[in-house]
Amino acid sequence: MKYESVIGLEVHVELKTKTKIFCGCSTEFGAEPNTHVCPICLGLPGVLPVLNKEVLHFAIKAGLALHCDILPFSKFDRKNYYYPDLPKNFQTSQFDLPICKGGYVDIEVNGEARRIHLTRIHMEEDAGKLVHSGATIDTSDSTCVDYNRTGVPLLEIVGEPELRSGEEARAYLEKLRAVLQYLGVSDCRLEEGSMRCDANISVRPVGSTTLGTKTEIKNINSFSGVQKGIEYEAVRQAQILDEGGTIQQATRGWEEAKGITVLQRIKEGDSDYRYFPEPDLIPIEVAPAYIEEVRGELPEMPDARRKRFMEELGLPEYDANLLTLEKQTADYFEAVVRDGADAKTASNWMLGEFAKKLNEEGLRADQAPVQPDRLAELLGLIAKGTISGKIAKTVLPEMWSSGKTAAAVVKEKGLVQITDTGALEEIVKKIIAANPQSVADYRAGKKKAIGFLVGQIMKETKGRANPGAVNELLTKNLQ
User: Where is the Asn/Gln amidotransferase domain (predicted)?
Assistant: First the structure.
């Protein structure tokens, strides 16, 4: 490989507070445009902001969970730029004295563990939202502005440029989302914009320690988009360098449909924002006792939960990793196990049939119409031999759509597994008699022929025959 990628991510996370960062307007998502606004978040003359204490609380909580240093003295600053969705013509943010410095996120990709360091975490307000009449601003006849999001509290988490691939960037974001969800400070729903990512990418010759000129891909709203956008941009920059060109420092957008990045504007530097201290907000002083009080609130983190799933429940590392990526999934899984299901069986179903249903309908685990106790009941019927795993796969969708219990579905559909060897013996003999060629093949040493006979018996019983009993009876009768 001739070049290596150097990637740093800036992640913006909307905090799960009921009101905005400097006023009492609601932060609820999906309201009618411009209904959650007031003179303060609209930046009208003569108003004064007041910091929402919950924002500071959540910022410290996130900083502690991500191993940051909490600064005892921090302040807000004005970041000046002019854009229609910013009614004050400046954003209230933090510049040289943020609430958190340092920290790290541990990731693992292809069996290799890496520690990605953080530069800082700071508090700021969100901007409004441009609503285009077309798909993009270039293809629109008009653009409206919705200021509901203006003033919604954000944490900006700035990572060091230590990521080396789109795959690593995705793993970093997934771990970051998991930590913040476990803390309860944000729901991190990318589809609603409550977690957004800007990716800074440059390439350099392998072995070089000099950073290349970077471009920034703005506001990517999916993990796959981050990975694909970074991979595309790295190839684009490498081709320019190979052709003797130079990289222009710029902001680019990710076009999902085309799978490309496109130029948006020439990138500003910090000096272009003309930062200066916010005169309407007093500096923030955090007492060490308060920091320790917040530290005491920290819940079990994803890495600790993954380790517990492996050590206490005996799950493989692969299962434990996937189950703990989202708090809702881990919570649901633990509830299923508490209701009596075997941990490995529950994991197989959570990562298999259950995940398939969630993905089909775009749901999270906590939104599933089948509650944990109902899934545990279904798995219990398999464990007792009442139904087979194959039958259970037809029962789950029925439970999902009807809201009925597993037992009710099994009874109504007549799906109870046939385990009576006497009844099965007659069916086995019938299938053997009807398939002399397969019987001859089996007796001639072609052991795979028994699979066809098993299939015929399952077809005859509409999948209700106990597979273990069928194999045992077939083997005995074919001797």
Answer: 331-478
